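Lay summary. Proteins are chains of building blocks that fold into shapes, and those shapes determine what they do. In this project we predict the shape from the chain. Here is one chain we studied, written as its sequence of building blocks.
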Amino acid sequence: MSDPVQQAYYVTIVGLGLGIVLLSFIVAIVFLYQRRQFQHQAELNRMKDIYDQQIMKAQLEMQEETFKNIAQDLHDNIGQMLSMVKLTLAAVTVDQNIPHHDKLMNSREVLNKAIMDLSHLTKSLHSDRIAHVGIVEAIQYEVDSIRKSGLVGIESSIEKGSYYIGEQNSVVIFRMFQEMINNALKHAKATQINVSINNPDGNTFVLSINDNGIGFNVQEIRSRGNSSTGVGLRSMTNRAALIGAKFDLQSKPGSGTKVTITLPLSR
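And here is the predicted shape, written in a compact code that computers can read:
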């Protein structure tokens, strides 16, 4: 092979080699850049999740503090006033033959119901009581109160066992339970609600709420995140995630709604 041809051959080989090296370098740079971008985005998402959780935690703490103050004010002011009125009426001897006897007796009954309703409201609002009695008793008390009100048919099934999930978790779960019951009454137009609590594996708290309401398309609502229902579902999911729980919602138009909250038991 002549010298010029050999030189051209060597130059071609060296050029190809340098080209391959340069191309490999460029690919490596692009790969590292994309990897760094991915890690950076993942870190931003992680920080955003932490920030969102901190904001939600602060909002829940403020909400509970507000509820507690309202409950205390209701008990100390309105509750005391109603009790004084009840004592005053009880001290009055009413003859059955006097005019408006029946109306007065009816007023006493209405007053007694108002005092009972106020007592229920303060207990539902006061987070210290929820934490003290535990999630199972708090939910059962709420179910009994709803049943007595006659607003809707409601039944509960609670499997015997220990259901300690922590005080803060109990308050969060109870507020979610109240919101789901309110949704069943206000939006789903349900006439029957079934509540169950069980521990399927000995380590898990499972709360289920079923209603026979009008139901809805879950995917459609989730896609409309700016609607009140979409925001409510997202809030429920975020609150569950905040305490390490799983929130599952199943519904179809005309088939009612089933909500399940699953949370590991505390040790």
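What the prediction tells us: The chain is about 65% helix and 15% strand.
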